[in-house]
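# nightly structure sweep
# worker-07 picked up a monomer target from the shared queue
# config: single-sequence mode, recycle default, output format = structure tokens
# input follows
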Amino acid sequence: MKIVENNKLKKLIADDNKKIRSIDDVYFKDENGEEHYPYYTTIIYLPNNFDISKINELYVEEIEEVAELGE
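# output follows
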């Protein structure tokens, strides 16, 4: 992950072939059997007052799995 700052905007950008999710957004199945899948993105716009030292406490970068054609 890298942070890019330009024109007063801060962006957290995933490395090539990776994706970002909130550290608290995880897969689970509730008592009714409904599944929750995490939301992934490649860019997150950060507020100007964002504390960069907290980045690894809030976000996780994972390898993006690419589905094979024909599956």
